[in-house]
Amino acid sequence: MTTTRDVTIVGGGIIGLATAYALSVTKAGGPGNTRITLLEKESRWGRHQSGRNSGVIHSGLYYAPGSSKARFARAGAEEMYEFCRNHGVPARRTGKVVVATEERELPALDELARRGWANGVRVEELDATGLREHEPAVRGIRALHVPDAGITDYGAVCAKLAELSQAAGVELRTGTELVGSRVSGGELVLSTTSGRIRTRRAINCAGLHSDRVARLAGGNPPVRILPFRGEYYENLAPNAPEVRTLVYPVPDPAFPFLGVHLTRMLDGSLHIGPNAVPALAREGYRHRDCSLAQLREFAGYSGARALARRYWRVGAAELTRSLSTSLFARAARKLVPGTRAADLRPAPAGVRAQALGPDGTLVDDFLVTSDAHWIHVLNAPSPAATASLVIGREIAARLAHHTEAG
Ligand SMILES: Cc1cc2nc3c(=O)[nH]c(=O)nc-3n(C[C@H](O)[C@H](O)[C@H](O)COP(=O)(O)OP(=O)(O)OC[C@H]3O[C@@H](n4cnc5c(N)ncnc54)[C@H](O)[C@@H]3O)c2cc1C
């Protein structure tokens, strides 16, 4: 059976759903009766990155001024709080601290403060005493306090976006994987595991599979997706160190990851993580998940070889820590001395979709490309969940622009 649509979105994570919401509910692509379908290969929404993350609403502190990440995170955070408030999704503006524990981290902490101010983020500098007033269990020599950071449940945000989009007329299809795409009579013909769809335009929001979907669409994406597993522990001690909000280390500026942090979740539990371990499969949530096809693909990609040559020491250290609860606890103890390995239990891991260039560069900013029929979201790492409502609107605007131009 063939269905005919105007726009088909591939991927029911928070970016695909926010795009459907922007097109249907807020009509960011312009008024009109656009017929929209959203395809998701899993049986429910947000099963991958969007439902397996730290749940933090980032405030825009970290990102290079002028970058899409900086612009979208700040606006996106406020919209996310408002969306949650309006639609009964739990969210809390808890604030967070970024903590330097050693002198050598101070230049990077100062640079973060500068970035924050340049990005219009409220940032307060704390000395060791000020830090203790905010977070009595945390030790550091200096810190930044960011009052507008917070926490939500992005899985619940996904479910609400799906509900609102469906009510506004979007056809939602779970359990439907895109497996092929060709152009016929000026339109796309998409092959899926539940039939064919003729569509004028398509939007690739396939996260960990976005480079594959771009190739399947006949494109030659400028990047490949490298999966990085992020493992978490939960601190189960009844007398666990009292961490009130979100506690972050000073991140290594060479990497687009924020480092192992402590997160007081909405349900009150205390999570520690995520690390960043190269995964051996795109949905490799466990150590034993390994895809030979994926390994072959990366062995043949210049970017993966260059990255491995440059960072094998860091990769080996992350892998070692990933196999040892006591090394993980040691990382947390740097910030919260009372953390004991015996109290930590593994919590569900997530896998990040990180775009990798052919020269081994980890792409830092969001990356979206387009051609006559497709828009491809090829890099939407953190803070993309925070910024998802703004990103969805940008994609809708790009679609409208192309439609007018075409
Ligand atoms: C460990 C971790 C911690 C993070 N912490 C934060 C945080 O605290 N704050 C923050 O803002 N961001 C955070 N992020 C980042 C954030 O989760 C992601 O940026 C965001 O979820 C990306 O959403 P997405 O829709 O692009 O991808 P996904 O959620 O992965 O969705 C892509 C969807 O596409 C589907 N799909 C793939 N191929 C096909 C196909 N062929 N046909 C149909 N469907 C397909 C997949 O099944 C999937 O559901 C974190 C990420 C991780 C992994």
Automatic annotation (TrEMBL):
It comes from the Bacteria. One of its GO terms (molecular function) is (S)-2-hydroxyglutarate dehydrogenase activity. Keywords: FAD, Flavoprotein, Oxidoreductase. Residues 6-398 form the FAD dependent oxidoreductase domain. Pfam families: DAO. One of its GO terms (cellular component) is cytoplasm. InterPro entries: FAD-dep_OxRdtase (IPR006076), FAD/NAD-bd_sf (IPR036188). Its cofactor is FAD. The keyword Oxidoreductase applies. Belongs to the L2HGDH family. This is L-2-hydroxyglutarate oxidase. The lineage of its organism: Bacteria, Bacillati, Actinomycetota, Actinomycetes, Actinopolysporales.
